């Protein structure tokens, strides 16, 4: 999968791939958070550079679980196969990382993704849990940007 990568943290702009250099967001960031952020950043960099989900396999724990918003989950093998199958439909997708934050064993990535041309845009929040240097769990929320306005009043009973 060829994918344009835009790293917009601290207004860095367009980059060919996520930098492996880790920068501290503030002076008080703890080493565990920094190390876990590095684990996720390296995994995502390799994924973007190779275009293959299977490059992630050695970075995932054996009991990795991907949690879906609908309450279902996938094992490591199921998730890798699903991501790999989706890549053919994502050729040329742009990925803009807006935030990459770490707190203890959790790393959060907020990104915007767009298919080429006039393709749809989505906003994605991934939460990764790192254990013993491997990604152990992932939670994912995806919102189509075109539907964002309607979702701002989700609690309104008068909403269609």
TrEMBL record:
The lineage of its organism: Bacteria, Bacillati, Actinomycetota, Actinomycetes, Streptosporangiales. SUPFAM superfamilies: NTF2-like. This is Nuclear transport factor 2 family protein. It holds the Pfam family SnoaL_2. InterPro entries: NTF2-like_dom_sf, SnoaL-like. Residues 47-137 form the SnoaL-like domain.
